[in-house]
Automatic annotation (TrEMBL), chain A:
Residues 86-279 form the ABC transmembrane type-1 domain. It comes from the Bacteria. This is Putative ABC-type sugar transport system, permease component. It is a multi-pass membrane protein. PROSITE patterns: ABC_TM1. The lineage of its organism: Bacteria, Bacillati, Actinomycetota, Actinomycetes, Streptosporangiales. It is found in: Cell membrane. The keyword Flavoprotein does not apply. Its main location: membrane. The chain crosses the membrane at residues 28-48, 89-109, 121-143, 201-222, 256-277. Belongs to the binding-protein-dependent transport system permease family. Keywords: Cell membrane, Membrane, Sugar transport, Transmembrane, Transmembrane helix, Transport. GO terms for biological process: transmembrane transport. Gene3D superfamilies: MetI-like (1.10.3720.10).
From TrEMBL, chain B:
This is Putative ABC-type sugar transport system, permease component. Pfam families: BPD_transp_1. InterPro entries: MetI-like, MetI-like_sf, UgpAE/MalFG_permease. One of its GO terms (cellular component) is plasma membrane. Its main location: membrane. It is a multi-pass membrane protein. The lineage of its organism: Bacteria, Bacillati, Actinomycetota, Actinomycetes, Streptosporangiales. Residues 75-282 form the ABC transmembrane type-1 domain. The chain crosses the membrane at residues 12-37, 78-101, 113-135, 155-176, 208-228, 261-283.
């Protein structure tokens, strides 16, 4: 290394060095935060690998040898009810998020791009839904569904989660920014109808915003506990959250079931964490659209 | 273009949202209010047709909900739990967001992803993980720390920990994204004026984060008042959580275990009202004090 480079390096080092105390503290704090957030997930991964005998005897942070047995046993549990729960969850979260995204995108586009009598009233009403606690809705929703014979059905969990006020708000903000009025006007001059404009011009432009809305809805429905817990009686229709809960209730005093519960908890995390990591970059888009203004 | 031709299209496009709103929001709310004002009246021995009638009782159910000692202790527990969660969770979220935004931090991407990760974990699973981590027979924490996490007083802290763990990353990301949207030259200007990083954080960044902090606080208030999943899931692991630990758990018990829909409806309206009052109250306090200078 020639003296000149050394000089610049040391010069740079002093400049960075002056800020070093500031640099080490934030890094350390963030790493402690990261460790705190990762720890339970890592622990359940380890716990899921232990055979029933190892669970209580080996060190809590040492991997075991029973992962495959645990998975096989979990899938065999009550004729494979765990598979059913996983499939149901995918149906509720996937179907619900798709419907919800479609409704939000069309509503957001309409509210952003059309002027019509009643627009502000409709917008305020739809957005006001954010403030209504789920609890106020859950019981009467259950009663209404049971009156029309749909309680304890897939629809009872799917339909109430389609309308999502915050997603409509995000879609409106997104449509306002992503769809130029001039493009719509040009389409109209070319003779395109409103339906065609919406489906062929507006929706394709809204796709990135729709991905974000879909992700949030997917996670929200996947994580929901209260609604399916209230609506469903037949455990064949349970999503994973309610299924895991029933597993815990029946296993709380039976340490023999602990392996199944821990393996089930671990397996229920895998798809969501995978989705979460692959879709990482989408989370930041629009997350704070509601907050910045 | 004649606007009249467009006339019905906006309404047509909004039809799905309006129908869903009516069916799953407006009608249920109306029905809750209707139920809350009524009660079953039993005449005679309660036998035969017409012996049980639903009658209008006015605000009796609300009066009962407000006088219910079990519900009051639920409110107190949620007040303690909620203020703990709000302060710690939002404090940590703000701290992490500011740390992430400071230029000199290492491994920022890794930390950001790791702290946001619990957002992908359902409340039931999160409670289950922590619940097992609290159990003496399994917990690596109990190997080191001899604390009874599920004791009568400690269980509130243990539950708050689950909520903080699950919520800190989401709030951090909202605040961090807002910070990234602030023009960088604002900090340069402050640096030229001789401000330290800490001063920039406190004097420039936090005030600019104001609206985002308010938003996350309101959402967190609404969420903590309705706490249900965590205490319900933790219940099988300890006997220190009653079936009416939180007001929403009492609503569930009244409606589905006891079968008293009228009390449940009245209590859920009280919960909704308290959520609204607290959210709006918070917004008003913030608007009157914090943002007066701005």
């Amino acid at each position: 290394m020639n003296p000149a480079t050394t000089a610049t390096v040391s010069h740079r080092r002093t400049r960075v060095g002056a800020g070093r105390p500031v640099g080490a503290v934030p890094t350390a704090l963030l790493l402690i935060g990261a460790l705190y957030c990762l720890f339970p997930v890592l622990w359940v991964l380890i716990a899921a690998t232990k055979s029933p005998a190892e669970l209580f005897t080996t060190s809590t942070l040492a991997f075991g040898t029973g992962l495959l047995d645990n998975i096989a046993e979990l899938f065999a549990y009550r004729d494979g009810v765990f598979w059913l729960w996983a499939g149901n969850t995918l149906l509720y979260a996937g179907g619900g998020a798709l419907l919800s995204t479609a409704v939000s995108a069309i509503s957001g586009y309409t509210l952003a791009k059309y002027r019509f009598p009643g627009r502000d009233v409709i917008f305020s009403l739809l957005i006001g839904g954010v403030l209504v606690p789920a609890v106020v809705l859950a019981i009467p929703q259950y009663l209404l569904f049971s009156r029309i014979g749909l309680a304890d059905s897939y629809w009872a969990v799917l339909l109430p989660q389609v309308l999502h006020p915050y997603s409509i708000y995000l879609a409106r903000v997104y449509a306002g920014a992503a769809i130029p009025d001039s493009l719509l006007e040009a389409g109209r001059i070319d003779g395109a109808g409103e339906w065609r404009l919406m489906s062929r011009v507006a929706m394709p432009l809204m796709v990135p915003g729709m991905v974000t809305i879909f992700l949030f809805q997917f996670v929200a429905i996947w994580n929901n506990f209260l609604l399916p817990f209230i609506m469903l009686g037949d455990d064949g229709k349970f999503p994973l959250t309610v299924g895991l809960y029933t597993l815990l209730v029946s296993g709380a005093n039976q340490p023999a079931l602990y392996n199944l519960i821990l393996t089930g908890a671990f397996l229920s995390l895998v798809p969501l964490i995978a989705l979460f990591l692959t879709m990482q970059r989408y989370w930041k888009t629009d997350l704070s659209s509601g907050a910045v203004k | 273009m004649r606007p009249s031709q467009r006339g019905a299209w906006p309404y047509l496009f909004l039809t799905p949202a309006i129908v869903l709103f009516t069916l799953f929001l407006a009608v249920p709310i109306g029905y809750t209010v209707y139920l809350a004002l009524r009660r079953t009246k039993v005449s005679g021995l309660g036998l035969g047709r017409g012996a049980r009638r639903e009658v209008y009782v006015g605000f009796d159910n609300f009066a009962a909900a407000l006088a219910d000692a079990e519900l009051w202790s639920g409110w107190l527990r949620v007040l303690g739990y909620g203020s703990l969660v709000l302060v710690v969770m939002l404090g940590l979220a703000l701290l992490f967001a500011l740390m992430l935004d400071s230029a000199r931090v290492r491994l920022a991407r890794f930390s950001r992803i790791a702290i946001f990760l619990p957002y992908a974990v359902p409340g039931v699973a999160a409670t289950l993980l922590w619940g097992f981590l609290y159990l003496p027979s399994l917990s690596p924490i109990r190997d080191v720390l001899d604390v009874d996490f599920l004791g009568a007083t400690t269980v509130t802290y243990s539950m708050a920990n689950v909520a903080v763990w699950g919520g800190v990353g989401f709030n951090m990301l909202v605040l961090y994204t807002t910070l990234r949207a602030i023009p960088r030259d604002l900090y340069e200007a402050a640096r030229l004026d001789g401000a330290s990083e800490l001063q920039i954080a406190v004097r420039v960044k936090i005030p600019l984060l104001g609206p985002a902090i308010v938003l996350t606080t309101v959402f967190s208030i609404i969420a903590t008042i309705q706490v249900f999943t965590e205490p319900t899931t933790l219940r099988p692991l300890t006997n220190t959580i009653s079936s009416t630990w939180s007001p929403l758990m009492k609503v569930y018990r009244d409606a589905f275990v006891t079968g008293d829909l009228y009390s449940a409806a009245a209590t859920s309206i009280v919960i909704a009202a308290i959520s609204l009052v607290l959210s709006f109250g918070f917004l008003r306090v913030v608007r009157n004090h914090a943002f007066r200078e701005g």
